[in-house]
Specification:
alpha/beta, six-stranded parallel sheet
Length: 216
């Protein structure tokens, strides 16, 4: 039986960053006279920055303007979260990665490359991931399955041998469409779409026995 591969999303799975993303988007939008309501915040979860920027600022923006807004907002995000990066990690995730370091482990996120690099370096997590795929390495962001299929390919794993950890609707849809098992992490949403297992964090007691089950 092949090793079970583990593929983790980043925001809301490795790091509980969505509360800070919410605050930073509101602050950033305010600079341009845009009031950020709850519906806008909910639409932000799990999406790639180019989609969020066009949603918040309008479809009339040029690609360069979209990139500039996204980059400026993410610089503000990194400045805001930097002093609390380790405290913001989802409870138990570092220990989880260490326990499973001998498995193929990948990171697949719609996040900006600069944010991925920042997290892996600042939290010293890079060594756990054999494959890292960000939103700029695929043509189609989540909820399209491309990002998870690419991660599986880089890990040398079949989709049916992969377990994805996700916290957003778009991410869960992407993993399902890729034909992978899904663990829903309840950091961002109180109610998740149907998944194979739900956890509050990586200390949830039923997670390890579930992962140890036969998968075929």
């Amino acid at each position: 039986m092949p090793d079970l591969a583990l593929i983790l999303d980043m925001d809301g799975v490795i790091i509980d960053s969505n509360p800070i993303h919410r605050r930073v988007w509101a602050l950033y939008n305010q600079r341009f006279g845009i009031a950020t309501d709850e519906a806008m915040q909910q639409r932000m979860y799990g999406r790639r920055n180019d989609e969020i920027v066009r949603d918040f600022f309008g479809e009339h923006l040029t690609p360069d303007e979209v990139r500039a807004h996204g980059a400026a907002k993410e610089r503000l995000f990194r400045e805001t979260i930097a002093p609390q990066i380790n405290e913001a990690l989802v409870p138990g995730v570092r220990e989880f990665l260490e326990r499973h370091h001998d498995r193929p482990i990948g990171l697949a996120t719609n996040a900006e490359p600069a944010n991925v690099e920042f997290l892996l370096e600042a939290a010293q997590l890079r060594r756990y991931f054999r494959a890292v795929v960000d939103g700029h390495q695929v043509r189609n962001p989540k909820p399209h399955p491309e990002i998870y299929l690419r991660a599986a390919d880089l890990l040398g794993s079949e989709p049916g041998d992969c377990v994805v950890f996700e916290d957003s609707v778009a991410g869960i849809q992407a993993a399902r469409a890729a034909g992978m098992s899904v663990v829903g992490v309840r950091t961002t949403l109180a109610v998740l779409p149907p998944v194979d297992r739900e956890i509050d964090d990586f200390n949830s007691p039923g997670l390890e026995p579930w992962l140890a089950r036969p998968v075929r």
